[in-house]
User: What shape does this take?
Amino acid sequence: MLFDRLRITDPEEVGGIWSRMMQRIYDAGGLYTLNLHPERGILCKRALDSLLSYAQSRPLSIWVARLADVAKWWKERSRFRFNITSQAPEQWRVEVLCTPRATVLARHLTIEDQPAPPWFGSDVCVQTHSFTVKATKCPCIGLSTRTPQEVVDFLHEQGYPALRCSQEEEQQCALYLDLPEGLGTTRKEQVERRSALVERIERLEAPLLRFGCWPDGSRAALAVSGDLDSVTIQYFFLRVLEVKQ
Assistant: This one.
């Protein structure tokens, strides 16, 4: 797009654009997938160096990985769960079922008997997978019995502890959801409802635990991928020449 459509070929300008995109994705905690045509490799070298240097300079690490590694990690992460039990009024025992690479985060609560360094925003990073917290409510999301399983699965996918509970127990949870309509039937409905639900949870001023999206405390991820569409040697060189013209 930058080369073919906008004719932006200056390495510093391209690197600056990519770095600004990386910052926005870093703030959101997402994945930046940069797709490069192989024949653009030499032209993009300085811009790519600039992007990688910018990524390495962020306060929290950015995980640089192949897309295959991202897919493998997401499958690993999908099995993570929180087991939270009440020990006393406003005291909860937490056992985290996960691999050592998990990023365990907490907000608006006190981790007892261990340090919890600040991470990003209101979140702190929990260093162990077995701990006790002090909180006014259970740091989880409660769901009514008539809320469909797809909502539970989505919340687990997003890294939130979600459990079924009765209406009598709803006041004990950081957030109680009664969503009998589920997440919608059309693609548009699903995107809108899922986005609205995550935004609602992220705005909560209540105790909450969750898994970070990326391994080993990383805030965001960066994957540089290739797109091989030069089907002949002639076309390959024409793509290189067209950018230089």
